[in-house]
Each structure stands twice: as structure tokens, then as C-alpha cells.
# Entry
Amino acid sequence: MRIALLGGGPAALFMYKRLTESGHPGLEIDIFEKKEHLGNGMPYSTEGANDEHITNVSDHEIPEIVMSIEDWVKVAPKELLARFAITPENFNEFKVLPRLFFGQYLSSQFKLLIDRATKAGIKTAVHLNSNVIDVADHPGQDEVSVETADKEVMRFDKVVICTGHSWPVTYEGRVAGYYDSPYPPAKLKLKLNHPVAIKGSSLTAIDAVRTLARNNGMFITGENGSLTFQISEESRDFKLVMHSIDALLPGIRFHLEDTHLANDSLLTPGEIKEHREANNGFLSLDFVFEKNFKEIFRDKDPAFYDQIKDLSLEEFVESMMALRQRLDPFVLFRAEYKEAEKSIRRQEPVYWKEMLAVLSFTMNYPAKYLSAEDMQRLTKVLMPLISIVIAFVPQSSACEMLALYEAGILEIVAVDQASEVVPGEKVGGIYRYTSEDGARRQIPYTTFVNCIGQPRLSYEDFPFKSLINSNTISPAHVKFQSPTAGLIALKEGSGDVTTDGQGNYYLKVPGITINDNFQVVDLYGISSKRIYIMAVPYIGGYNPDYSGLDFCEEASGLILERILDDTAPGI
# Structure
């Protein structure tokens, strides 16, 4: 069986590991990677990180690959260890790591896996600096063709799309000082003497803050370990202005027990199936919230359970957000830093936050079975809280944010949902928003950086046009449970609501349709036996929170399960 992995980052790493350890006879695997290295992908390479950027996971939390980071540090290149001041003696499995260092680790693991596979008789062809420009399905031949930029066309039995992050470009390169994303971060090594507008306050925004600050001043560590920031003389008017809905800052990383891997209180696939059968095929968001979040606290944290047991999803989110909205964002940020510091020092989790992360993780798999009404509640009500609380800002990033704030360099501005940035005629952009006092603002900035994170891209954005033209893939959508609600939404003029003319109404969600095993689904609802997808930007509608390496491990396991079933004797 010949399999192509399109992309050579972390998703491909876990897929390759699953395949080569499966014991399937006669495997031949081709890996197509547009960069020069396998394993590190965008976040852990120079496409997504400078030396100052760090992970928000530790060795303790990542799934097993070949060897732990703790063991790899003992054999890692000495120059790499020296560059990041890491030694086997000072390594701590609970601490986060520089992203470029982590990328080197992932690359080394990919090489070890390939070496193992070769010894086991598995053929692997690695195509570096190879950009795939199209994929076409050939049902009559039961094959898939892959076309590269140099016009080479190769055919395979199965293809797994692992193309990773994608950052659309709109005005960058056309308008000076306008950046559609902070990546690759080397482009933000700018010496500036004016305020910089940053859209967003997530980890993506913090990446931009760390780079811009270093090029316009320096961080100084005092004798007592305190961190301060000193602005450069030539950058005296430099300032970083974050713009965020309700001026909210993300939560800070605390000690994690990684309970989602072992928690026996979570819903099983069988329980989800049974619930859907009794609910007209739909998965109820309230049911998941009760069983995969609230009920867990009955024994684990009875006091917290008593606080939330009678709250609806909306009431819970409102109560959690109320505190964040009431307090000054940097006062809360400092308080959460102290809470997280204590959690890490004592190796005790902040349990309700960890379980919110578990809820987010477990919602990914069955989210496609939510009704349109519940999908709207998930994205508009629950996900904003999840994205803030479980951002897991690393401690060192939090320290730098606070140092910049204390130095008067960093501020955060509350903007409304309708806020927008209009590119300037020649440079930067104009931030238009309604402030908290109801005033309409139009603030021009010479430099603007869009830091809202990886956008969830649409069906129309899908890069392999032959799959669109042949209807091999289809736009993702979810059905309204109530036809009345669907009809009202349609009449309101939302372009995201459609009807089949038979009384059924559907909400279009980002990306393409996939099934439980990450197979693409065509316009007729038939799953492909040849094409699978793990690419982050194009499955966001059915996977609202694509959560890193854990999700790569989970998705790769489900794909392998389907591949083995399809190729078993008699299938």
C-alpha cells in the first residue's frame, strides 16, 4: 500500500509513527514537505518562532514519540543546548521550552522513526523543498494523484493532508507597515519610534509583543529576580497597543495533570452514540457540558460543584467572564500569575481550568453532531471563555507582559465586535471601533499587526482545486434541530444559512466536511476511502479547538484505524 503524507510537520510525524508501527505489510510512504526539514512544522521553525518564543506545553504533557525530551537532551547537539542554556542537569520535564529547541527535538524524532521504519523494511521517500499544488481523486483506478510545483505527478492508494497552518495575505507587501500576521516573526525585528497597533491579545499577539519589545529596548533581571523593561533612546515613542474584545487578556499556564488521558468520568463513544439515538441524531451541548464538565466536580471538587451545579452553560460562562470583565485586565493578569506560580511550585492544578481544557478537547471529536443552534452557542458563548482561560500563557511571557505594562510600553484597549482595521492609503492602518464609553474612534497607526491567530478557512479557500471541481470534498455544515429557527435565520439574511427546499435548514461552518475518521466527504455524503485530512485551517468547522500535539495523536489514531479496516482481508 502506497501512502502520501502531504506536509512534514507534527501532524505528519504522528501519522507516520502510527503507520510504521501498525505492522501493515508492504507499506510505502512518501512525505512531501515544502521546507528543508521534517518534524518542526510552522510553530516550531523559523516560520513561526524566534529564539525568544516558547512552547505552552512541557515534556510532561506531550504524547510519547520515540524518546522523551529529557532523554533527548542527553544526546542533543551541544551547540543547540548552549544556544538555549539547557543542560541535562537543569532540564525540568514540567517546564516549557524554546519553540525552536522543541522543533529540533521533533525533527530528531522524525529521523529516528524513519531509521526504525527502514530497518523494519518499510520504504520511505522524503521529498523536501517540495510544494504540492494539487490533489486529484481517481475513483475508477482507486488512486489519488499528487502534483508538485515542478509538475511531477505521482499516484497513491491513500493520501493524508497534513499541510498545517496557513496565513492568508491581504494587504501585507502592498501597504507598508501593515502585517496580516506576525509570522514569520523575523519580519517584526523592527526598530520603531511610534505606537504599534496589535489586533488581538492571544498567544499570537504575545509572540509579536516579545519580538517587537526586544528590538526597541531590553529586559533587565534584578538581583531579586524581578524583571523590568528599559526602552531604547531611539525608540522613546515606541508603544504596543493591544486591541481586544472587552480588553481581556489570556489565562496563564498552571500545573497540568493531563487528566483528559485518564479521566474515567468522561463520556464514552458508546454513551455519545446512545444519547444521539435518543435525540434525533443530534448531540446536545448541554448534555456534554453536564457530563464532561459539571458532573466531574461532584467527587473531585464538591465545593466548586455546589457553586455551578444549577447553572446553565450561559450562566456559567457569564459568571466566569464577569470577574474578568470587572477587574482591570493587568490587575487580573498579575493575580493569575501568582495563582499559576503557586500551582506550578506545588505541582497542584487549578482544577476547574484544567477540566475546561478537557471539555474543549473532548468537544472536538463529536462537535459535528451538534445542531446548528448548539454550534452557534458553542462558538459564541463557550469558546470565547475556553480560548481565554486555557490559552496557557507561559510564565516567562507573562513576566515580560507585566514588565512592559509597568514600563508604560504595553496597554490594552477594549474594542467592540464590529471593530475593523482599514489599511492606510500608504502606510499602516486605521483602527475603527466603539469604545467602552460609546464613542466612535478612528485611530491611525503607522504599524499594524493582525494577531488574531490561525483563521478558520472556508471551503472556497481549499488549496487543491481538483478536489473541489470533482465534488470530492464539500462545504461543512450542521443542521438546525428546529426548522422554525432555521427559517428565521434564513429570513434574517445570513449567507451562512441554507435550505434543501424540503423543510430542512443548515448552518454553513468553516472548512470542509469530514467524518469521525477524518475522511473527506463528498457532496452526496459519501466518505472517501482514499483521502484523509488533518490540516488545521480546513477542518475548523467540525473541530472548533484543534489542540496541538494531543489532537495530532488522537486524529492519527482514528485515521489509522480506518485505513486498517479498509485494507483488511475481505474488505
About this structure: The chain has a mean pLDDT of 91. The longest strand covers residues 505-512. DSSP finds 17 helices and 24 strands in the chain. Residues 475-509 form one domain.
